[in-house]
Structures are given as C-alpha cells and as structure tokens.
C-alpha cells in the first residue's frame, strides 16, 4: 500500500499554467522553467497522465511557448482564461472534472499570481495539490518565496519535476521506466 501523498498516475492530472510567449523576456529564470515544464509534459505523455494547459488572455500574452506546445501530449486541452485562478474558468473546472482525478500536479507561472490562486482554489475544492517547484517562477524573484510559504501553509505538497515523474512511474519494473530514465538523463543537460 502506497502513501496517499505520493503521486499515482491513475489519480493524477498535470496542469500547466500560462507558460506563454510574452513572459519569455521578463520571467525570472525562464530557461529553467521551460526545461522543467518540458520534462513534465514529455513524462506525462509517456506515462499516460492527462494534461490541461491554460493560457491567460492569449490575445495579449501570446500562446503557450513553442518549446512546450510541441510536446503537449495528444488529447491535452488548452484552455483560455481571464481569471487569475484556473478554477475561475468554467471550461477548466469542467475539463478537470471530466478527468475524474483528484491529484493535481501543478506547473507554470506566475508563482505569486495564477499558480498561487489556482492552488488555493483547488485545495478548497478538495483536491490534493502538488506543485513542482522547478517549473514555477515570477517576473520578480522576490515574489516567489512568499507565494510558496502561503501555498505550503494551505496544504500544498511541494515536489520537483523529476521527483514527480519518479513517483508516477513508481517502479523500475514499469515498461516506461527506461524511457523515463533516459528522458531524465537528457533533461539534466538543460538544467
């Protein structure tokens, strides 16, 4: 019996929040965020974890960064929103409900805005929420730590992209393990 705080690929959905083109030049540590989000997207695809991707006002902020859009798993939903919290977008709530999953693995930006508000709303709705720290950032580095403290205080479970994928694969006996291991090895070059 596994601890219920560990991610389980049969109960998890990956949510990638607002990693859009207009943030490329202004986000603190953009390259790290892109590399970690890319790793999670490719890992979710390999492990069959459903993925929801959000875009905050794409008319103004552009669409999901090209590096991520090309690795979005087949069947992943891209949801346009205006509310800072993903949970404020009815299409997001409906898409999340349709997955039937209660563990949410969150990645994306900005830590103190859309990620923070989404995490709080998902927790309030009764979900178990994990946030991959290496996938998050804000325009200003000083905004990140207070957001993490607030989310931790609310009950969020911290993780990293690699830790999350290793929990999801669960065992070296899984048919996807060698492919995931290779993916993790390659990803380290970019981080």
The Rg value, from CA coordinates, equals 15 Å
CATH class wording:
Alpha Beta
- The number of distinct β-strands equals 6
Poorly predicted ranges: none
Mean pLDDT: 95
Backbone shape: globular
Largest sheet: 6 strands, parallel
Distance between the termini: 34 Å
**CATH architectural designation:** 3-Layer(aba) Sandwich
Number of helices, counting only DSSP H or I runs of 4 residues or more: 8
Describe the structure in your own words.
The chain is of the alpha/beta class and 191 residues long. The protein has one domain (12-190): Rossmann fold (3-Layer(aba) Sandwich). Helix content is 42%, strand content 19%. It contains eight helices and six strands; from the N terminus they run βαβααβαβαβαβαα. The protein has helices at residues 30-47, 58-61, 66-69, 90-99, 111-124, 144-154, 161-169, 177-187, and strands spanning 12-17, 51-56, 77-81, 103-109, 128-137, 157-159. A six-stranded parallel beta sheet has the order 3-2-1-4-5-6, sandwiched between helices. α1 (30-47) links the parallel β1 and β2. α5 packs parallel to α6 (144-154).
Q: In summary, what is this structure?
A:
This protein has 191 residues and is an alpha/beta fold. The chain has 8 helices and 6 strands; from the N terminus they run βαβααβαβαβαβαα.
